[in-house]
């Protein structure tokens, strides 16, 4: 149960620069996004106030490659972005992305600043008390470590583990594992929190932390981008759904769900996921409020 936790591609230059230097850009060539067209029957379900304005205001926290991050030109790109762009097109709306701290996105949805959040949110029962979620992906937790310095995610007592602050890894996973350590008479896990995941990833590369914990697609991407400086620690655990949060009771949830069902049916969803290498987390059917825990 995860981010949200954010992992970003860490280049050799960033690693040498240290944690005070954080990058939101990736040198990777971003895949071409498939196009999507308005479907009148689905677009007609959009709340009238949003329909009249013609914009879908989306709160996003970056960097969190490959889901949402900035390319070298400063454009926000990623799996989540391509999918949300296709959702907006299906609804006949223009997506407008607004950057925000991760912890402020749900309150901003509650306050009508954003229509929807798009930051790899794990749909949890606790979060469902504040907002509704439309599920669109399945992810788990995956740790990373430096090669040759093995860490057991289920027995990391006394180790320093880097994580993005306010994520499920920071608030639930690591505290539970640390308590298991102390209950067994072992030293606790030292949870090293960062405001952005690229800094947490960098801390492991620089030896300032023993391992990092984040969402599985993000950790896998960070490992790929680290040029051999990181490797997986253990297996993917505790798969749970990602969801788009919307205001509690908003009919927009049903609009988003129908749009995603359409994109799954016509193959656009699979194409987008495959473009970004995250097809292992695809779902067959979205639901509203599908939290497991």
Please describe what this structure looks like:
The structure is a single chain. The protein has 293 residues and is α/β, with parallel strands linked by helices. It folds into two domains: 12-23 and 38-139 and 240-281, Periplasmic binding protein-like II (D-Maltodextrin-Binding Protein, domain 2, 3-Layer(aba) Sandwich); 141-238, D-Maltodextrin-Binding Protein, domain 2 (3-Layer(aba) Sandwich). Helix content is 33%, strand content 22%. The chain contains eleven helices and ten strands. The protein has helices spanning 12-17, 40-43, 48-53, 79-90, 102-110, 125-128, 168-183, 197-205, 216-225, 252-265, 268-275; strands spanning 55-60, 69-70, 76-77, 94-99, 116-117, 131-145, 160-164, 190-194, 211-215, 231-247. The strands form three sheets. It has a five-stranded mixed beta sheet with strand order 8-7-9-6-10, with helices on both faces. It has a three-stranded parallel beta sheet with strand order 4-1-5, sandwiched between helices. β2 (69-70) and β3 form a beta hairpin. The termini are close together. InterPro entries: SBP_3_CS (IPR018313), Solute-binding_3/MltF_N (IPR001638).
């Amino acid at each position: 149960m995860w981010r949200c936790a954010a992992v970003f591609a860490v280049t050799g230059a960033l690693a040498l620069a240290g944690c005070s230097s954080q990058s939101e850009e990736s040198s990777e060539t971003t895949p071409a996004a498939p196009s999507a067209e308005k479907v009148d029957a689905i677009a007609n379900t959009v709340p009238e106030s949003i329909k009249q304005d013609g914009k879908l205001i989306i709160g996003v926290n970056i960097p969190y490659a490959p889901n949402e991050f900035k390319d070298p030109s400063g454009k926000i790109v990623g799996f989540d972005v391509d999918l949300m762009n296709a959702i907006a097109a299906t609804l006949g709306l223009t997506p407008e992305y607004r950057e925000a701290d991760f912890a402020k996105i749900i309150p901003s949805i509650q306050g009508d600043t954003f229509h929807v959040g798009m930051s790899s949110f794990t749909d949890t029962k606790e979060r469902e008390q504040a907002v509704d979620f439309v599920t669109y992906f399945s992810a788990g937790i995956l740790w990373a470590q430096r090669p040759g310095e093995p860490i057991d995610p289920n027995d990391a007592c006394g180790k320093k583990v880097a994580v993005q602050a306010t994520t499920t890894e920071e608030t639930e996973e690591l505290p539970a594992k640390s308590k298991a350590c102390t209950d067994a008479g072992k030293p606790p896990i030292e949870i090293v929190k960062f405001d952005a995941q690229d800094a947490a990833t960098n801390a492991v590369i620089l030896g300032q932390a023993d391992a990092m914990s984040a969402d599985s697609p993000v950790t896998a991407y960070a490992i790929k981008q680290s040029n051999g400086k990181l490797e997986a620690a253990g297996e993917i655990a505790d798969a749970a759904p990602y969801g788009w949060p919307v205001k509690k009771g908003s009919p927009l949830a049903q609009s988003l769900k129908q749009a995603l069902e359409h994109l799954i049916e016509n193959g656009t969803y699979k194409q987008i996921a495959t473009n970004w290498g995250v097809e292992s987390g695809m779902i067959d059917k979205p639901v509203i409020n599908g939290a497991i825990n």
